[in-house]
Amino acid sequence: MTALGSAALVHSPLERWSRERGADVAIQSDQEQLSFAQLAQAVQAHADTLTQARAPATVLLDASQPLLQRLVAFLGTIRSGRCAAVADPAWPPSVLQAIQAALPNTSHEAPAPGPHTPFYVGFTSGSTGLPKGFRRHHQSWTESFQCCLDTFGEAAQSCILAPGRDSHSLFLFGMLLGLWTGAGVVVQEQFSAPAALACLQSGRTPCLVAVPSQLLLMLELAQHRGLNPIMGVRLILISGARWPRSRTDALQALFPQARIIEFYGASETSFIAWTESQTDLPDAVVGTAFDTVELDIRGASADSPDGLIYVRSPMLFMDYVGQQNDPSAALRDGDWVCVRDLGHIDGQGRLWVAGRQSRMLVTQAKKLFPEELEAVLEAHPAIARASVHGRPDDLRGVQVVALLQWADHSTPRPSAQELNHWCRQRLEAYKIPRHYWLCQDWQYTASGKTDHLALAHALLHTHKAEPSECSPCLTPLR
């Protein structure tokens, strides 16, 4: 394995690869590509432009540019000693303006970048409606790169397919990892399952970084087309949302030579825990901690074994940028960070994540984590996605309600009674939904996760309404 431990800056290896692998493809997009020599030249030119213009310490990147050019701008910005703030192309103008106003705007001669100077501001969903900006220094990501190589071996040092937006930290991490190792990266302007499968079939990208929704689309397409197993893939890294382990065997059949890895982490923490995906693994198990990660469960009791999960590692974020009063923000206690997930560690040293503190429901005086019920519902072959919510109920505290999206049309669709039977075989009675709603317009966040808040707003319009008065995107399941 190539020794990269001394590469203390995210962009440090580019100069080396431009000398040693100058003609090799560094970035390949749908329409163009750059070799390592071309990339290094373009990055330096962009850095020089920012220096001459005395650009601010933090530069908000132009999200309207093609993805390849955004990556050049990102690397050029950090090469100049500045911090690159990555905008989401889907932001409306009002959000973009608010984000720009919240960023530091002083112009100065940028200092030489160092391991602990900020290089990146990313954004994650905030409970106040404005995305939360989280800031990273170089070492937090170079440590993450090295941790990935140490944990997953040579396959993690091969060319990577990262078919998502750079505004999603998972995909940006995959893109920069491919450049850091010198293996290169293939990107997509917009995710395309046919293009992703074609790339993987070509053997160009032995490593795939993906979110579950992308993998499910690829599985459906491969089944529809009757594709043969793809033998050249060696490593699949899954994160960003819960992977439905009922589909692991199908994914393994499509990629027989691949290690299928699920990892648990957050934008503020990078890697926390990981596991080889297994069909029979309990849904709440996210695996064992990475070697450089320490875990501390706080607030657990005999009556409530799940406590807040605190993390300490060299991969943690620096701080938030902009708004400071978001109740969904991570908690800090010295060197420890908590993203408000609740869980416990079992006798085998495995971390179990019950769910996010903010989503926990209390029904019949008992705690219910929507994530557990969603996993059970999504394990049903007829259900593609589920979102669980609570509606006010004078007797129970809250009434458990599930929003559903059907899987492909070839699967028989159950009634509400049949779904209740499915849930009763796997859960305690108080966790069974009282009502099910079918959602025709499933909502996603910019990072491809189910947008539970948007779906809750749609559900709100159904409260105390007759079926004929419900939100047009929701229909009751009988």
Q: What does this entry show, briefly?
A:
The chain has 478 residues and is of the alpha/beta class. Helices cover 28% and strands 26% of the residues. The strands form five sheets. A 13-stranded mixed beta sheet has the order 2-1-8-7-9-10-11-12-13-20-19-15-14, sandwiched between helices. It has a five-stranded mixed beta sheet with strand order 3-4-5-6-16, with helices on both faces.
What does this entry look like structurally?
The chain is an alpha/beta fold and about 475 residues long. The protein has two domains: about 15-355, Rossmann fold (3-Layer(aba) Sandwich); about 360-475, ANL, C-terminal domain (GMP Synthetase, Chain A, domain 3, 2-Layer Sandwich). It is built from twelve helices and 26 strands. The protein has helices at about 15-20, 35-50, 65-80, 95-100, 140-150, 170-180, 195-200, 210-225, 250-255, 370-380, 415-425, 450-460, and strands at about 25-30, 35, 60, 85, 120-125, 130-135, 160, 185, 205-210, 235-240, 260-265, 270-275, 285-290, 295-300, 305-310, 320, 330-335, 335-340, 340-345, 350-355, 360-365, 365-370, 385-395, 395-405, 435-440, 475. Strand 21 (about 360-365) and strand 22 (about 365-370) form a beta hairpin. Helix 1 (about 15-20) crosses helix 2 (about 35-50), helix 2 crosses helix 3 and helix 7 packs across helix 8 (about 210-225). It is globular and about 65 Å long.
